[in-house]
Amino acid sequence: MTKFNFELTKEIELLRLVTVGSVDDGKSTLIGRLLIDTKGAFEDQLMAVRKKKGTTHVSSAADIDLAMLTDGLSAEREQGITIDVAYRYFATPKRKFIMADCPGHEQYTRNMVTGSSTANAAIILVDARHGVLPQTKRHTHILGLLGMPHLVVAINKMDLVDHDQATFERIKADMEAYCAKQGIKDLICIPMSALTGDMVTIRGDKMDWYEGDTLLETLESMSVLDDLDEKPFRMPVQLVNRPQTADLPDYRGFMGTIASGTVKVGDSLMVVPSGKTSTVKEIVTFDGNLEEAFAPQSITITLNDDIDISRGDMLVHEGQYIEARKSLTANMCWIGDEPLETRKKYIIKHASSELKVMVDSIDYRTDIHTLNHEPADSLAMNDIGQVTFKLQQPLSFDAYADNRSTGSFIVIDSFTNNTVGAGMIV
Amino acid sequence: MSQHKLTQLKALEAESIHIIREVVAQFRNPVMLYSVGKDSSVLVHLARKAFYPAPLPFSLLHVDTGFKFKEMYEFRDAFCEEIGADLIVRKNDDAIAKGMNPKEFGVARCCGALKTSGLLAALEEAGYDAAFGGARRDEERSRAKERVFSMRDEFGQWDPKNQRPELWSLYNGRIHDGESVRVFPISNWTEMDIWSYIRDEGIPIVPLYFAKERPMIERGNMLIPYYEENKNQLLEGEKPKMIMSRFRTLGCSPCTGAVRSDATNMDEIVIEAAAARRSERETRIIDHGSNSMEDKKKEGYF
Asked: Per the CB < 8 Å rule, is A404 touching B168?
């Protein structure tokens, strides 16, 4: 039996990834390669999707129909299309990965935005034969808009260009130039062949000219949470815990997930938007009270003063008050069937608040091909643009660039109840 | 690197607690489905953490087929009593009275009647608008595509082609009258995570998960537990044998197989899970067949 280190499973961190690119770029092959080489797919699951029914052993990505593994729904397999985001899981002794696998063709904006919204890193596939295509640029633009902390460009199919270093360097220079325009700084380009596995999980001997890490090594070593704990403390209140039991007749705990920053017992806190203040009495968890808590822990806070706090309020450090405003401007990715239009009313969900809003103006729509801003009176599905909303009541929020949790919101159609838009506050 | 970092299990735990609290905040009448298995044990543990020091703000609902292992019933009653949970047990009494069983009626029909119909009736009876389940996305390929908040129409059916996008950690729980939502707080956990967490947290689980010499019937690749009081389980030529074995997953006794194993404690189970080359669902008869899980979910199975 494999020797197994218990302590490792206790220490490993989580990295959420998103993979974008079309089927032609070899995305399925790359995902299959990662799943097989890290043993993230079980033998019976692989055997069920093998190409040749007689095969009794599956060892390489070439032996299986990878689309069958990723396309989980019968409609997808019947029609040969991928409907939406699927989540894959794999782990190495260093890290566990949750990978959102986004189909590259139909409705890519909607799928990409969904899959990328929770990711800390994106893998964007480029076919070495074709270089940076308009679609690559669109994907990169959206990732820039979503503030993706890390971007890995997988320059794939190097085996089909004779593992030529000059080809790699040319694509890398193109990507770097484009990313600089998008304000994306953390960019790593890796030459690879998902089919043979070279530079994905093994170095191979064909690209000795490349001195960087393999894809898997890169994913294992990049920073996970960035500076989330160094940002100002934000905790949207989800619920107020009032057990009202014989033991705890007057207990009032404020429950929430820390969106950013840290909090300590004794800290002076302010409630937004009311502006009331108190100090932290206890940080309560099932495993015992804490002296200090940090993002993204889910905790319960009790305060030394009896002040009015309810769901939708946010706890911040005193002196870091965020002004509540009745208007907000955001980059919108529209994902609803019905277009967004000026004067239309919607519901938005921001942190733990839900409120009515009205579209005040569509400031512009971004032409996804040229990235030019153009005037528009509506945003159709998969359109991206900047929109200003009027809010029914004042809301405290951050800019998305400063805080992904308190700077993002979803738009809900109040008639269908569907989620129709993703907003990133500017 | 900052001092403030969570291990991946603690990050998953924080995410699950956030989801569980969100449901209690957004819904009028939630309930937690409790199947007595290991995933249910983890789910209940997370719910206790979410609301501590208050008791669970919802009941546990066990949709019982009457075919569970007797060790599961013993564990269920003792566990719920110990943690002070309000346990509701519901059965499809009509189907049970008609003698529904997988051997005569087939596995699909039996599951449909005892699990799916039983569940839908129990949910409708009490008017639950949200039901937590312990399904994970790594279990099965149609589950890999399901949302954390999974909308169901008034018939409890899932429409996989028309799911709400889920962005950031913003869960849209708005529903129309008659609709409901199934919520899967441990969507992002893998089997390995479940076992590691049970070990790290000391969560109680049904003793059948630990290896022991047990009377078993060997049928094809399957190991089927043998019970003295149920001799008619045996097919012609079969004889029970004492085999060192355990269960990776627990369902109904006629349809759940055991695996050969020497893992008698949590450390050994984690080692075994890490080395496993075949998925746990393989020991569940209901999943075999081309789209069985997806079809059942469309009809309202959890």
From this structure: yes
Domain range A229-317, CATH architecture: Beta Barrel (2.40)
Q: Rounded to whole angstroms, how far apart are CA atoms B135 and B274?
A: 20
Tell me whether B54 touches chain A (CB under 8 Å): yes
Among residues A237, A268, A273, A267, the alpha carbon closest in space to that of A255 is found at A237
Indicate the number of domains in chain B.
Answer: 2
CB contact under 8 A, B18 and A238: yes
Q: Which ipTM value was assigned to this complex?
A: 0.92
Domain around B220? 205-285
Tell me which of B68 and A24 has the higher pLDDT: B68
- Shortest CA gap A360–chain B (Å): 23
Q: Which of A233, A320, A324, A239 is nearest to A273 (CA)?
A: A324
Query: In 3D, which of A295, A285, A284 has the Cα closest to residue A262?
Result: A295
Give the sign of the dihedral formed by CA A316, CA A322, CA A323, CA A326: negative
Q: A94 exposed, middle or buried (CB, 10 Å; 0-12, 13-18, 19+)?
A: middle
- Determine if the pTM surpasses 0.90: yes
Interface of B with A in 209-268 (CB under 8 A): 267
Query: How many other C-beta atoms lie within 10 A of the C-beta of residue A241?
Result: 22
Q: Residue B102 belongs to a domain with what CATH number?
A: 3.40.50.620
Q: Would you say B273 and B288 are in contact if contact means Cβ atoms under 8 Å apart?
A: no
**Strand A298-303 to A277-284 pairing:** antiparallel
Chain A CB within 8 Å of residue B17 CB: yes
Predicted confidence (pLDDT) at residue B1 exceeds the cutoff of 50 = no
Structure tokens at B261: 């194993």
